[in-house]
């Protein structure tokens, strides 16, 4: 079996935790905490999303379909939605739920730059990431 702790996804998980633990120290001069908070949320989402994709591939040979694969007027489905549907199909409903919540936080952090990000939202992102990593383990 594969050890998740030796994967690039786990490296990103550790980096995200370190960003969170050191967020007060790394805020750029003359900037507010929003830039660091949004980075933490973004990294939490992408580490979880890439882990979920890798987990699905490892156990079920799941591959995200590129836009070119959607033919005959079938509407394009984003990789995120494809992963969510696959997690649900393979009865990983908790990982599905938390990845969806992380995506909502990431959308706010990355696309709604005028909105404030609360400490609770950053904390939630870390909790969701940890729950996804606990749910999607490689091995026993």
Kindly estimate the percentage of residues that lie in beta strands according to DSSP.
under 5%
**Which shape, going by the Cα principal axes?**
globular
Q: Would you list the SSEs in sequence order as H and E?
A: HHHHHH
Q: Roughly how many Å apart are the termini?
A: 8 Å
The DSSP helix count reads 6
Largest sheet: none
Mean pLDDT score, rounded?
89
Unreliable spans are none
- The percentage helix is 55-70%
Beta strand count: 0
Indicate the structural class: mainly alpha
If you compute it from the alpha carbons, what radius of gyration comes out, rounded to the nearest whole angstrom? 16 Å
Task: Give a verbal description of the structure.
This protein has 140 residues and is mostly helical. The chain has 6 helices and no strands. α1 (8-21) packs antiparallel against α3 (34-60), α3 (34-60) packs across α4 and α3 packs parallel to α6. The longest helix has 27 residues, at 34-60. The radius of gyration is 16 Å and the shape is globular.
